[in-house]
TrEMBL record, chain A:
Keywords: Cell membrane, Membrane, Transmembrane, Transmembrane helix, Transport. The chain crosses the membrane at residues 37-57, 98-124, 145-169, 217-240, 252-270. The keyword Membrane applies. It comes from Halorubrum glutamatedens. Belongs to the binding-protein-dependent transport system permease family. The keyword Cell membrane applies. Residues 100-287 form the ABC transmembrane type-1 domain. It comes from the Archaea. It is found in: Cell membrane. It is a multi-pass membrane protein. This is ABC transporter permease. InterPro entries: BP-dependent_transpt_permease, MetI-like, MetI-like_sf, OppC_N. GO terms for cellular component: plasma membrane. Pfam families: BPD_transp_1, OppC_N.
UniProtKB/TrEMBL annotation, chain B:
This is ABC transporter ATP-binding protein. Gene3D superfamilies: P-loop containing nucleotide triphosphate hydrolases. GO terms for molecular function: ATP binding. The keyword Transport applies. InterPro entries: AAA+_ATPase, ABC_transp_ATP-bind, ABC_transporter-like_ATP-bd, ABC_transporter-like_CS, Oligopep_ABC_C, P-loop_NTPase. Pfam families: ABC_tran (PF00005), oligo_HPY (PF08352). It comes from the Archaea. Keywords: ATP-binding, Nucleotide-binding, Transport. NCBIfam families: oligo_HPY. Residues 8-262 form the ABC transporter domain. Belongs to the ABC transporter superfamily.
Length: 306, 343
């Protein structure tokens, strides 16, 4: 009788408990890793100030003539003003929202697509694996940047469209990495032993392959966000971003077209540029740290160095 | 063993791994096949333990895996409970896996390190559609059956927190929780310390006695084979060369290869002179199998005939063993009964 008590007790929340456990473990790992701590701090700060923009921003980012035109940074306008007298600091805070939303959303979608295609591409040996691999390799051939420009020009550059386009064009590289990892996992004997129990391919991929591929998925996903943030900035800088929303990329676009450089209005370009660089750097640190935390072999090596 | 029921009947099972030499090679007809299993026939009764022994590379593991279709056999038939499973569609085969299981050599490899014992043993039941709560009760029973007690101490451990012997028991529990009637045990004790080995062997014996379970034990350890099994088969280069009653086989091997294999066991008595077998050379490449009898290049008694003609698989009853089969020209054929029973 006591047996059944033990089993029923822990049964109900098993998966949730385990998930929380591993999230906790990873967080602790990140916090005790120098790169992880730095990355979390940078990304956390950028995310916080962007999403708390309405609370922090001293002015309406779109209101014209808030201050004098092209004023260098002062106590009143921390990052100066642009040629229409808008407050650059307020625009910077609000602009981060679009850059981060587009970057993170597109990065996540791309990583999910990459996983859904990469895992079966690596797991299946026969024709299915070959077809999926061919699909990945062919998608890899398309120059993403050129296609983003073409698509943005054709289907219109709303925020949603930009997310979809960036996601659809950036999945092949992580898909290849995930596929390579899936190949090494499928060779494990526990995969064969699960097949011997009568499991379907789907169950094996879900229960045996995916959990062992996830570390690679996460580390890649974070680095994927860096790529999509930079892409978004590039697209907006070319004037193909959503014209109704301020992002760091569109700020740079206007600074460029209105001749900030020749006017000597360095603050107009430096701050949005810094926003992009700091965010991308933060995510890169986070991704590298995540790789180290989730991959015990790398971890041991860093311990040796420190 | 007067009333026996044949559980498994393998006929001319073959597994050839093709080694592609590229399309140029295939145009030149140079594609070659590794003949890992090259025509093995064997039958297994309910409740019987048969061991297959042989050097590494003789195809014994491939035989074990291909008769469960973990490796698809190239040719031959496998009848299980009277149905040929080589032609079964995938979904029926998956259902049938409840009945035929395998225990792998290294439990550290064959158990997912990210799962607890509870999850590992529950998984087979969930795969076959049992609800989690229902499965949990069976998990506890299965772990008790393999002697992991108190069970509550082990349920939430991860593989890395257990010893090899305990883990091998978990492997057994994972296979046996489905209540199969046939289990392939691939070197079940070779990764274990000698002290634990006997306990795992006893466990297998017990399972056979209690559940009428049949085992095909793949091993290179002749003492394990003798201790555990009813019959022992010797494999050489993809073929069975001899099979017979376990004790008789060890005491009185007929095939020159079996003799050599058995003589190579060092004697525990220091007074006896140890004279290892007089066979020379290495096992030939299974890509280039020798003509005639495949053992002839290393055989001490080979004749011209052996180089040309492949010997037949025939019954050679010995004094103590009426069920001995041998594949050799040189084994005295006088004892062949007038009406040999085809196997």
């Amino acid at each position: 009788m006591s047996k059944t008590e033990i089993t029923v007790q822990t049964d109900r929340f098993e998966s949730t408990r385990e998930l929380l456990e591993s999230v906790k473990r990873v967080l602790i790992g990140l916090l005790s890793n120098k790169k992880g701590l730095a990355g979390l701090t940078l990304v956390g700060t950028m995310v916080f100030i962007s999403f708390a923009a309405p609370l922090i921003a001293p002015y309406d980012p779109e209101a014209l003539g808030i201050g004098p035109r092209l004023e260098p940074p002062t106590g009143e306008h921390l990052m100066g003003t642009d040629d229409l007298g808008r407050d650059v600091f307020s625009m910077f805070l609000y602009g981060g929202r679009i850059s981060l939303t587009v970057g993170i959303a597109a990065g996540i979608v791309a990583t999910v697509v990459a996983t859904l295609i990469g895992v079966p591409a690596g797991y299946y040996r026969g024709r299915t694996g070959r077809w999926l691999t061919t699909a990945i390799d062919m998608s890899l051939v398309f120059p993403p940047f050129v296609l983003v420009i073409v698509f943005a020009a054709y289907i219109g550059s709303t925020v949603f469209n930009i997310i979809v386009i960036l996601a659809l064009l950036s999945w092949p590289i992580p898909a290849r990495t995930i596929k390579a990892k899936a190949i090494s996992v499928r060779e494990n004997e526990f995969v064969e032993s699960t097949r011997a129990l009568g499991a379907t391919d789907f169950t094996i991929m879900k229960d045996e392959v995916l959990p062992n591929v996830l570390p690679v998925v996460f580390a890649n996903g974070v680095l994927q966000v860096v790529f999509t943030i930079l892409m978004e900035a590039a697209v907006s800088f070319l004037g193909l971003g959503d014209p109704t929303r301020i992002s760091w990329g569109t700020m740079l676009y206007f600074a460029q077209t209105e001749g900030a450089l020749s006017l000597g209005a360095w603050w107009w370009m430096i701050f949005p540029g810094l926003g992009i660089v700091v965010t991308a750097f933060g995510f890169t640190l986070l991704g590298t740290a995540l790789d180290e935390v989730l991959n015990p072999r790398l971890q041991r090596r860093t311990w040796g160095w420190d | 063993m007067s009333e026996t029921e044949t559980l498994l009947e393998i006929k001319d099972l073959e597994k050839h791994f093709s080694q592609s030499t590229g399309w140029v090679g295939s145009l030149l007809g140079k594609d070659k096949a590794v003949r890992a299993v090259d025509g093995v026939s064997l039958s297994l009764d309910r409740g019987e333990i048969v061991s297959i022994v042989g050097e590494s590379g003789c195809g014994k593991t491939t035989l074990g895996k291909s008769l469960l279709r973990l490796i698809e056999p190239t040719a031959g038939s496998i009848e299980f409970h009277g149905t040929d499973i080589t032609e079964l569609p995938d979904d029926e085969m998956r259902d049938l896996r409840k009945e035929m299981q395998i225990v792998f050599q290294d439990p550290f490899q064959s158990l997912n390190p990210k799962k607890t014992v509870r999850q590992l043993v529950r998984q087979p039941l969930e795969i076959h559609g049992m609800s989690r709560t229902e499965a949990e009760a069976r998990v506890v029973d299965a772990l008790e059956d393999v002697g992991l007690s108190p069970v509550s101490d082990f349920l939430d451990r991860y593989p890395e927190e257990m010893s090899g012997g305990q883990l091998q028991r978990v492997s057994f529990a994972r296979s046996l929780v489905l209540e199969p009637s046939f289990v392939v045990a691939d070197e079940p004790t070779s990764m274990l310390d000698t002290s634990i080995r006997a306990r795992v062997l006893d466990l297998m014996e017990e399972l056979r006695n209690e559940r009428d379970l049949s085992f095909l034990v793949i091993t290179h350890d002749l003492s394990v084979a003798r201790y555990l099994s009813d019959r022992v088969g010797v494999m050489y280069l993809g073929r069975l060369v001899e099979i017979g009653d376990a004790d008789e086989m060890i005491m009185d091997p007929k095939h020159p290869y079996s003799k050599a294999l058995i003589e190579s066991i060092p004697s525990p008595t220091p007074y006896e002179e140890f004279d290892p077998a007089d066979i020379e050379g290495e096992v030939p490449d299974p890509i280039d199998v020798p003509s005639g009898c495949r053992f002839h290049p290393r055989c001490p008694v080979a004749t011209e005939e052996c180089k040309r003609i492949e010997p037949e698989w025939r019954m050679v009853p010995t004094e103590g063993d009426a069920s001995r089969y041998v594949e050799c020209h040189e084994v005295d054929p006088k004892h062949v009964p007038a009406d040999p029973q085809p196997q």
